[in-house]
Design brief:
Protein name: Diglucosylglycerate octanoyltransferase
Distance between the termini: 29 Å
CATH superfamily of the largest domain: SGNH hydrolase
Keywords: Acyltransferase, Transferase
Structural class: alpha/beta
Strand content: 5-15%
Number of strands: 6
Radius of gyration: 18 Å
Order of helices and strands: EEHEHHEHHHEHEHH
CATH class of the largest domain: Alpha Beta
Strand order of the largest sheet: 1-3-2-4-5-6
CATH topology of the largest domain: Rossmann fold
GO molecular function, one term: diglucosylglycerate octanoyltransferase activity
Shape: globular
Number of helices: 9
Helix content: 40-55%
Enzyme class: transferase
Number of domains: 2
InterPro entries: OctT, SGNH_hydro_sf
Length: 253
């Protein structure tokens, strides 16, 4: 859970999806200095406390915040909250999320493997078909109204314990993943909802698409088309630090 950085500066609690810990070739340990949470923390002279998982939506972040005792342990020392979730919420999910998340627990093993392989094979075509025929592009991993509901729950919960700390959230990134049929029809609605919530609640935003769009869509990220190379991690980390620096400076003053 603990990332890299100094022990004397601000502590950043980062609730994230795999974009926080996946590099150009593989998922990396949380203390890998090149990951953007650690880039941001180092730029601010502090450290990152990373709580994240593959495919996490805002609902997963809320669940971790309320059930993981490791998060409770660090909460009294948190100086800033970074909500680096919400982007995966906007990805196509032809099978309802609740059913899709049951695949790993199917038994026997042969059934689980067959269902997983069948879903992975069908998902790209279904995503393209839904995007072409259903208004709004079809179902996504988590609807925007639920994304912002869980983001707000996370914000309120942390600020109850650490009132006045700055909060930063992320606008959805972009992808070119064959696994999703290169479909991202839900992104625009997710961005609108996140911008509206952030404006209402005074949350600073980092625009991931503006920072990494050319990098990802130009094929310079991970070969599967979602995760980033180190150049993009550096850009996002710097932008996150820039978003936090004024508020952290005021708090210290």
């Amino acid at each position: 859970m603990t990332g890299a950085g100094s022990g004397s500066g601000p502590v950043l609690l980062i609730l994230g999806d795999s974009l926080t810990f996946h590099g150009p070739q593989r998922a990396e340990p949380a203390d890998e200095p090149g990951l953007w949470p650690n880039v941001a923390a180092t730029a601010l002279g502090g450290r990152a406390e990373l709580v994240a998982g593959i495919g996490w939506t805002a609902r997963h972040a809320w669940h971790a915040l309320t059930t993981d005792p490791r998060v409770w342990a660090v909460m009294p020392r948190v100086d800033a909250l970074v909500l680096a979730v919400g982007g995966m919420d906007s990805l196509p999910s032809p099978l309802p999320t609740a059913l899709r998340e049951l695949i790993p627990v199917l038994r026997p093993d042969g059934l689980r493997r067959a269902v997983r392989a069948g879903y992975r094979s069908a998902q790209p075509g279904l995503a393209r078909a839904f995007a072409a025929t259903i208004p709004g592009g079809g179902p996504v991993a988590l609807p925007p109204r639920l994304t912002v509901r869980h983001l707000e729950r996370c914000r309120q919960a942390v600020l109850t314990i650490r009132p006045g700390i700055p909060v930063v959230a992320m606008l959805p990134s972009v992808h070119r993943a064959a696994a999703y049929g290169e479909v991202h029809a839900g992104r625009a609605a997710a961005e609108r909802a996140t911008r509206g919530w952030a404006s209402e609640c005074g949350v600073a935003l980092v625009d991931l698409a503006a920072l990494v769009g050319e990098h990802v869509l130009g094929g310079r990220g991970n070969p599967h088309g979602i995760h980033w190379g180190w150049q993009a991690h550096a850009a996002v980390g710097a932008a996150c630090a820039d978003a936090l620096r004024p508020a952290l400076g005021r708090a210290r003053a």
